[in-house]
UniProtKB/TrEMBL annotation:
GO terms for molecular function: ATP binding; ATP hydrolysis activity. Keywords: ATP-binding, Cell inner membrane, Cell membrane, Membrane, Nucleotide-binding, Translocase, Transport. It holds the Pfam family ABC_tran. Residues 5-226 form the ABC transporter domain. Belongs to the ABC transporter superfamily. This is ATP-binding cassette domain-containing protein.
Length: 228
């Protein structure tokens, strides 16, 4: 079976650091990317997303080589910690940006936006400005934008980091539901042991720019090592 995501000795040299990632993941599932601060989690994401070009190796997603392809053309959505919402636009337009950067929408697109907002529990929020939303609501808008993009991979770069524990729990449940409903491959950088155990199907541990574990969360030694 072709792995959903394959990195074959993907190397990068940043400053004095060398990164060399080798990884094969089946999909769709939720994969937590963990490891100590500075180990290379974000660098891995930047390589997968195409923000950082590798100096060697190859990356394939759902069997298609993506190395050298522009970030916007890769089959993924990237959610950053601040969610990349535009404060001067309302919720509907923020979600619409996932479909069209110029906000040119068909009737079908408008329906898709309404469905996505309902899916994330924000029906009726269309005309609200995002600057007035709570942290959890902003997270939901970011999920709705990801849903309308309909890309098979979703990368969450510490997207829940600014939320309190209760909200992280809720957002974890919402993410799990959306992942199952839409059969997405979710990769999430996480520093939260409970989150990893509760929602991740697999764990990838990064240490010094390399993958040192890829497998089941419950048999992962790093649970004690990083989160004792
Ligand atoms: N453009 C760059 N130039 C030089 N060094 C870099 C560059 N980008 C990243 N690094 C270094 O590479 C290492 C890995 O960075 P990365 O952001 O991938 O770590 P991380 O595991 O995501 O860390 P954290 O959990 O703290 O966010 C760090 O030591 C960082 O300072």
């Amino acid at each position: 079976m072709t792995p959903a995501l394959r990195l074959e000795h993907v190397t990068a040299h940043l400053g004095a650091r060398t990164f060399d990632y080798d990884l094969a993941l089946e999909g769709p599932q939720i994969v937590a990317i963990t490891g100590a601060s500075g180990s290379g989690k974000s660098t891995l994401f930047h390589l997968i997303a195409g923000f950082q070009e590798p100096s060697g190796g190859s990356i394939s997603m759902n069997g298609a080589e993506v190395t050298g392809i522009a970030p916007g053309k890769r089959p993924l959505t990237y959610i950053f910690q601040d969610h990349n919402l535009f404060a001067h636009l309302d919720v509907q337009k923020n979600v619409a940006l996932g479909i069209s950067p110029t906000l040119t929408l068909s009737a079908g697109d408008s329906d898709a936006i309404s469905r996505a907002l309902t899916d994330v529990g924000l029906s009726g929020f269309e005309k609200r400005m995002t600057q007035a939303l709570s942290g959890g609501e902003k997270q939901r808008v970011a999920f709705a934008r990801a849903l309308v993009r309909r890309r098979p991979f979703l990368l969450l770069d510490e997207a829940f980091a600014s939320l309190d524990e209760e909200l992280r729990h809720q957002m974890g449940d919402l993410l799990t539901r959306l992942q199952r409903q839409n059969a997405m491959m979710v990769l999430m950088i996480s520093h939260d042991r409970r989150e990893v155990v509760r929602i991740a199907d697999q764990v990838v541990e990064i240490d010094d720019g390399r993958v040192v574990y890829c497998g089941n969360p419950t048999s992962w030694a790093g649970l004690g090592k990083y989160f004792a």
